[in-house]
Specification:
The protein has two domains: about 140 residues, Rossmann fold, CATH 3.40.50; about 130 residues, Rossmann fold (3-Layer(aba) Sandwich). The termini are far apart. It is an alpha/beta fold. The protein is elongated and about 65 Å long. It is built from eleven helices and twelve strands. α2 packs across α11.
């Protein structure tokens, strides 16, 4: 009797052990979801808030495919904080970093650290400096629009309101960023075609208040200005206030870039003539998809393609 009981107990124990082991085994064999970090510039800028929302919505609809961490800095020039965020993501051992760099050169060393740690890095919005990347023997794909082309479209639309010799000013973003430089180049291309005179190019650092201060100074120094070409809509909002304060509404055209929600009423009533939509929400998604495909294909950073151009379109009233 004792022998039979002992056998039953042993059999039950074996069954229970097997049952307990099954879910653990299944869990252990389940593929690990990639963890993607989206590192942006200033979340005080509506453009990057839109980008973050688009990325979060995409992850929500694809929750079984990847996990997402989003980070941003306080203001557009806080490069040191963005470098620290990337370093934190390296320590956190994320699988990929999708980066909109605050500075095209200063972020390259920390990007190299990430790549050396086996993390896939994809560059969006503002392109990392190709020469600095080459000096570090780095290949980082850029997913984003042709900023020069986009700004030229905006400038060409403004040019229809101008004639040869008309004076204009350009409010540039952070001057060490490739997208700021490219947008300024696009504006210059358009102004050259119509024969407009560019009196001044000054940095408004992508910010409303700084844009307002720079625009006010330009309007004071160059009283014959016919237009202010702004590298983003935040600076355009600041320029609109400067134009109003100078009593020059209807006399000085303002154009921007980004098509944020805050600019739409100004387009509607004519305070802003035109802007460009580079699809902030989709841009992050394109970058995340590029990273996920690289992870799924077990690609090395050096094997990733160079440029994935995304759309940018003229927006008017």
């Amino acid at each position: 009797m004792n022998h039979r009981i002992r056998r039953r107990v042993l059999t039950a124990a074996v069954v229970l052990a097997a049952a307990a082991a099954m879910p653990f085994s299944a869990f252990a064999q389940a593929p690990k979801k990639p963890k993607v970090a989206l590192v942006m510039k200033s979340l005080a800028n509506e453009f990057f808030l839109t980008m973050e929302t688009g990325a979060k919505d995409y992850q929500k609809h694809n929750a079984s495919q990847f996990d997402l961490i989003t980070n941003g800095i306080k203001d557009e020039t806080d490069t040191a904080s963005q470098i620290r965020i990337v370093e934190q993501m390296i320590v956190s051992k994320v699988d990929a970093i999708v980066l909109a760099p605050a500075d095209s050169k200063a972020l390259v060393p920390v990007v190299k650290k990430a790549v050396d740690a086996g993390i896939i890095v994809v560059n969006i919005d503002n392109r990392l400096d190709p020469d600095v990347l080459k000096s570090k023997d780095l290949n980082v794909p850029f997913v984003g629009p042709d900023n020069r082309k986009g700004a030229e479209k905006v400038g060409d639309y403004l040019a229809q309101k101008l004639k040869a010799g008309d004076e204009v000013g350009i409010l540039e973003g952070v001057s060490t960023t490739t997208n700021a430089q490219q947008r300024t180049a696009g504006f210059k291309d358009a102004m050259q075609k119509v024969g407009a005179k560019i009196d001044s190019v000054q940095s408004g650092e992508w910010e409303i208040d700084k844009g307002n201060a720079v625009a006010s100074a330009m309007l004071n120094e160059y009283p014959n200005l016919k237009a202010l070409l702004c590298g983003n809509d935040n600076m355009a909002i600041g320029a609109v206030s400067a134009v109003r304060a100078a009593g020059k509404q209807g006399k000085v055209y303002v154009v921007g870039y980004d098509d944020i929600d805050a600019i739409k009423p100004m387009l509607k009533d004519g305070r802003v003539l035109a802007t460009a939509n580079q699809y902030a929400a989709k841009q992050a998604v394109f970058g995340i998809d590029t990273a996920l495909k690289a992870i799924a294909g077990h690609n090395k950073q050096s094997e990733l393609s160079g440029v994935v151009e995304t759309p940018v379109d003229l927006v008017t009233k």
